[in-house]
Amino acid sequence: MSDILDFLREEGVSEDLIRGAEEFRGRYPVSEEYRDRVPEPQYYYYGKETWEMALAVLLAGRNLLLAGPKATGKNVLCENLAAAFGQPVWNVSFHINMDASYLIGTDTFDGTRVTFRPGPIYLCADRGGFGVLDEINMAKNESLAVLHSALDFRRAIDVPGYDLIRVKPQTRFIGTMNYGYAGTRELNEALSSRFAILSVPEISEADLDRLIKKSFPDINPKICTQFVKLFVELMRKTEKAEISDRALDLRGLLDALSLIREGLTAGQALRMCIVDKTFDAYEQSLIMDVVKARIPAELDRTISFE
Amino acid sequence: MIRREYTGNARRARNYIWNAAGRYDFEPPYIAFYPTGEVDMYFNMVIGLAVKWFDMDYLTAFFDSYRSSRSADEYDEFLWLGIENCVFAKELPERPILAQLRTDRANDFFRIQNSLSRQQVEMQSMAVYDQQAARWSEVLGRHVLLAGKKRKMYEFLKFEGNLDTEGLVARMNEFFEEFFHFTPGISEEKRSFRFADSLRRGFGKRRGSSEKLMVRTADGGGITDKDVQLTHTAGMRYGFAPDKKDEDYIRACFGDCAYSDAEMRILEEALCTDGDAACRLWVVKPQRNGAEAGALINAQDFLTKAAEQRRRNEKYCEKNALMINESIKRLSAALGTLFESYSRHLPEKARAGRLVARNAYRLSVVHDPYVFLRDGDETENNLRVTLLLDASMSRLYSQEKIAAEAYVIASSLEKIHIPLEILSYRTIRGFTVIEKLKESAEKRADSVLRYTAGGWNRDSLAFRTVGRMIREGDPNRRQSHILLILTDASPNDSMPIASGGLIGGKEYEGELSVREARKAVSALREDGIRTSAIFLGSSAHLDNVHQIFGKEYVRIQTIAQLADGVSKLIAMILRESPPD
After folding, report:
1. For residue B228, is it within any domain?
2. What is this model's ipTM?
C-alpha cells in the first residue's frame, strides 16, 4: 500500500494538515526498538471531514476521543492516524475490571527483588507514541482517574513509590467508545473534558463502496453495490435493535469477499463471516433473511470478480 | 394468506417488511403467511416494497374503504397480486435477486398447494386461487390456463411498474369497477375500532352486595372477550371496613397469611394509618394449586381461573421462547456489566499486584513470591432487588406479557447471581394482598408464572408495606436495595381515603391516589430503597408515572424493549445513588 499521506491527498484532505503530519514525523523520528509498533494499515479510513478534524486535534497537541457505534471504523482511524504521524502504538482494551495498576504498572518480583513492571500508558508516555484507549467507557471511572494528569496540561504521571514520568511531547492518547450500548457507561466529566470528542459517523454507502473497491479492485461493480446495500441493511437493523451488533462487522464483510475470491460461495462466506458472528439461533435467522434478500447463496468468484 | 394480525413468527415477518421498506418506524398493515403458518418471505418483502415505493397511509385508507365488505379478504388478495407485479418491476433494477426470490415463491406456491388437505383446499377462494396459480405459472414459464373474464382479470392484475401512489389507487379503483361493479373510493377519516377500548370505557367502579375476583380468559395480547365486573362490599368501620367474611374470602383465595396475627396487627397499626385507616393487609406465599374441596364457592371460581391463567402464562412463554431467551441473554449481559461495578472483588494473593509490605520478607527468607495482592474472581455482592408487580384488574389485558417480562428479569438477575424477590399486589375487599411469587433464595424463575391479575390497587399502601418487608429482611441495613415496580401508574381502590373518622371519604383514584403513591415512593427513597418503575401502560397515565416516580422510570411496550429499557433504568438508578 502506498504511504497513507498520499491516500489523504487523493481524498482531498487539507494540504496544510498533511504537511503538519509530515513535519511531525520529521520532528519525532521513531527509534529502531519501537519501529515495529508503527502501524502499516491494511485498510484506510474514508471520510475527509473526519480526517481533517482528527489531524487538527492531534497537531494541536490535544487528545482525541472517537465516539460512535460499532462498524464506523474507529479503530481503523486510530491505526491510520498513528501511521499518518509515523508513531508507535500502544493498544489498551478497556474492560470493567481494569484498574490503575494495569494501566500504569504494577509491582512484581524478578527473581531477586521487587521491581516495577510498567504498563502500556507508562510506556507510551515515557517512550513517546500514540496510546489507543479502546472502549474507554467500559472501565470504572475511578480506575481512569490515574490518566487525568497524563491527559491534561500537566502531561505527567506520578507513579506512587517510584518516579514522576513526563509525557513525551509527541505522545497523544486516542480513546474510542461506543455510547449507550449495553455495558457502557457515562464517562465522567473530568475525563471527557480532557479529550476533544469526535463523533465518528456511520460509513456512508459511497465510502463503503470505495473501501470495497479499493480493497478488491477486480470486484464486479454490481456485486459490490449489493454487498454495500447488505451492510447498510444490517446497520439499520442493528440501529433498531432488531439484531445485536455482532453481525455488523465491516471486517467480516471484507473477509467474506476475500473468501469468495478464494473459491467459496457467497452463502458459505457470509455465513462464516457475518451470520455466525452471533451465536443466537433466532438472530442468525433474522440476519440470514437479510442476506438471502440481497445475495444469491451460490454466487461465486466467476461472477463476483472480473 | 395475507391477514391483518400478528401471531407467532410475526417479528420475523415484520423484519422482512421493514428490511424491504428500508424503515423501521411503522407497524405493517399486513403480514404474509402461507396457509401452513410459515412466514411468506417474498410477500412480506412485497409489503415492505409497497411501503418503500408508495404512500402507505393512502393505500391503507383505500384498503379500509372496503373493509366492511364480506369479500374484503378476497379483494385484498387480488390487489396484492397487482401490487406485487408493480413493485417487482420497480425494485428489480436495484435488487437483482428479486427475480430468483420470485421464482422461489412461485415454486413454494405449488409445493404448498400440493400439501394442503382437501378441507384446506375447499376453504380457499377459487377465484383468488385461479389468479394466484396463473401468476406463479407465468413466473415459472408455464402456460396460463385461464380464459374469458378470469383471463381478463389476470391481465388486468399485472399492474405496471411505472405507477405512483395515485396511479396505483386509480388502477385498483378501475379493477373494482371492471370486475365487481363498485368503487370503494377513499374515505376522509380512517375508521378505527378497538374492541378492548370499548370494553374499558364501559367498565366502572360499582358498589354492591358482593365483590368477586374474576380472572379474564382472553389471549393476553391486549384484547379481551369478557367483561369484568367488580363491586364492593358495604363495610362497617368508617362505613366500609372489611369484616370476617372478607377475611375468609381472602384466605380462601390466597391462603394463610405468612405472618402471625400478632405480627399482622403490628404491621397494620404501623401502616394502615391516616387515609388507609380502614384498610387491611395480607401477605402470602403462593399456596394455591387449584380449587380444593371445601373451599368457598366464590374462591373456587377464582382458584380455577388462576390455575388456568398460569397455564396461559406458561404457554405464552413457550410460544415466545426464542424472544424471551434472547431478552434474557441481552439483559443479563447488560446488567452483569453494570452490577460488576458495584460488587467488590475480594483480594487474592498473587505474584504481581499491590505489594503487602509486611509480607515482603517472605521473598528472600522463604522464597515465596505470593506477597502481592490483586482483585480476585470472587465478588462480594451486597445488592438485592425486589420486583413488585401490579396485579390489579387494569392488568387483565396483559397478564401473559407481564408474567413473561417478570420471568425475563428474574432469569437475567439469576444468571448474574443478584438475589431477586418477586412480589405482586392487589387490593380486594379492603385487603391489600402482597403475594410472594418468588423468594430471594429461590433460583428458578418459573414461580413468577403464577401471576394473575384481578382486583383494585391501593398503590401507596402496597408500596409502604413492601418497603417495610424489605427493611424487616435487612434490619442492620447491610445491603443496598433496589425496588422495581411493574405498573401502569393507575392507582385505584374501591375503599375510599378515610377522613378523620367520618363516614365517607374521598375516592382513592385520580389525583389523590397519585399523590398518595408519590408520598409513599418518596418515603421509600428517603429510607434508602431505590424505587423506580417499569411502566407498561397507557399513554394516558404517563403523567401519573412521572408524578409518582419522577424521572426514574422506563416505558416498555414490548418484551424486545425490556433488555435495553431495564438496563438503562438500573444504570440511572446506580448513577444517581450508587450503593454503599
Report:
1. no
2. 0.75
